[in-house]
Write a structure and sequence with these properties.
236 residues; alpha/beta; Rossmann fold; 2 domains; six-stranded mixed beta sheet; four-stranded antiparallel beta sheet; 37% helix; globular; P-loop_NTPase; ATP-binding; ATP binding
Length: 236
């Protein structure tokens, strides 16, 4: 049985600068995969190339049986590969409701009402703030909104790019509890994070990206006990 997301030999970058150097990565259905690495390792570039926001220089991306190599980002969304970007990227001058509705602009528009109720079941706080402009919300609330907006598109696989970035320790705990819940409900998730410890606690498998290449991959318990991981990721 083939993987839900299969990335082979993916290369990409900006201008003449190569960032991704032949990345291989897989995510299976209903699986939580952590992609770890320090700033500049290429994690966000990988997300952008996979989602059609930055053109690939080489390699292939297959998702749910379809070849998405070089596909337009709308085709990627229509296939059910949804990204919650780093920094949340909510629309600050639009209301919570308007931000959520935009999540279903390309995919699942006909089920917008029922999906809104599902999102409110996960994030009751958003229902209390429907008319509030997103730009006036706290960082944690904006992250909830960004994830809720992604869920409005009925993702087959959800990419979460640094969801704990800029959050207080308490909110980080809440965010990882939420991500665990999504995984437990059967949603495939690619979790892109610098928070190694908590990511490996909830992941089924993990990859470590260093200088645009996958240096290590395996089960979380293998990586946690690996001296090689500490050298590659922490520089020890």
């Amino acid at each position: 049985m083939s993987a839900l997301l299969e990335i082979n030999g993916l290369r990409g970058g900006y201008g003449r600068v190569e960032v991704l150097r032949g990345v291989d990565l897989q995510v299976n259905a209903a699986e939580m995969v952590a992609l770890l690495g320090s700033n500049g390792a290429g994690k966000s570039t990988l997300n952008k190339v996979v989602c059609g926001l930055v053109p690939a220089w080489g390699g292939s991306v297959r998702f749910d049986g379809h070849d998405l190599s070089g596909a337009h980002y709308r085709a990627v969304v229509q296939a059910g590969l949804i990204q919650v970007p780093e920094g949340r990227k909510v629309f600050p001058n639009l209301s919570v409701l308007e931000n959520l509705e935009l999540g279903s602009f390309t995919r699942a528009r006909e089920r917008r009402t029922s999906n809104l109720e599902k999102v409110f079941g996960i994030f009751p706080r958003l229902k209390e703030r429907l008319a509030q402009n997103a730009g006036t919300m706290s960082g944690g609330e904006q992250q909830m909104l960004a994830i809720g907006r992604g869920l409005m598109a009925e993702p087959v696989l959800l990419i979460l790019d640094e969801p704990s970035l800029g959050l207080s320790p308490l909110l980080v705990e809440e965010m990882f509890a939420l991500i665990r819940r999504l995984r437990d409900e059967g949603l495939a998730v690619l979790l892109v994070e610098q928070n190694v410890g908590q990511s490996l606690e909830i992941a089924d498998r993990a990859y470590v990206l260093e200088n645009g290449s996958v240096r290590f991959s395996g089960l979380p318990q293998e990586l946690l006990g690996s001296d090689a991981l500490r050298r590659a990721y922490l520089g020890l």
